[in-house]
Amino acid sequence: MLVGQLGNLRQLGAGSALGNNNPNAATKAVDDLYHNLQEANSMPKSPRKNSLGKLGGSVMGNIIRQPSDEFKHFHGPISRLDPEALKNMGNEAYKQGKFEEALTLYERAISLDYKQATYRCNKSAALLGLGRFMEAVIECKEAIQLDPTYCRAHHRLATIYLRLGEVEQALYHYKQAGNHADSNDIAEAQALNQRLKRCSDARKSKEWRTLLKETQ
After folding, report:
1. What separation in angstroms does the CA of 82 have from each of 51, 76, 148?
2. What is the DSSP string of 164-193?
3. In angstroms, rounded to a whole number, what is the distance separating the alpha carbons of residues 84 and 79?
4. pLDDT of the chain along its 216 residues, tens only?
5. Neighbours of 37 (CB within 10 A)
6. What is the distance of C-alpha 210 from the center of its chain?
């Protein structure tokens, strides 16, 4: 399992935040993006102007987006469904491996009720299924902000941080996850922490054989 964790670090490449020599680069990148999004959401939105005036409805009608048949297999207009029903649909899509569809459904649920931490946490799961780790981190953070005692969100965030090699962050959130985190989770994080430390020490002392051995 530890090999897989280290493999994730290698696959992200030198061009990513984790390719930076600073071990906290990934966390800082995500935190900066998260704070920027919060600031953007807190800014007052200017009212939209009606652009139909001079062009006329007949012209604009040609470019208005037609209703999507993405959810035509659901009964009734999708806009009339309550957010909990949308979440349940998203759960079913997720179980079938339809992560894009699940993501869309969770986002629709959030648009109807943005104060539900569960919807954010579920959205993070769909993003993970699509390999969008940084966005998944942000959604977990949103869920925890809405409900700081949400153990599942803490556990998922810890798991993501572990895959990103941010062991200290992973250990912190495992501790906040309560019964959702077992001894194996914490032991795995601690073992990875030891390997990363040996890698760092080997790199500093230019012990390339030791470094190669630890990353295999």
Report:
1. 31, 12, 25
2. HT-HHHHHHHHHHTGGGS-HHHHHHHHHHH
3. 13
4. 444 454 444 444 434 444 444 445 555 656 666 666 666 555 555 544 443 333 333 333 333 334 445 554 554 455 467 999 999 999 999 999 999 999 999 999 999 999 999 999 999 999 999 999 999 999 999 999 999 999 999 999 999 999 998 999 999 999 999 999 988 999 998 888 888 888 787 777 777 666 566 565
5. 13
6. 34
Residues whose CB falls within 8 Å of the CB of residue 70, separated by 6 or more in sequence, listed in order? 101, 104
**Tokens at 129, concatenated:** 């299924």
Tokens read off for 33: 């993006």
Tokens of 85: 């029903």
Amino acid at 82: D
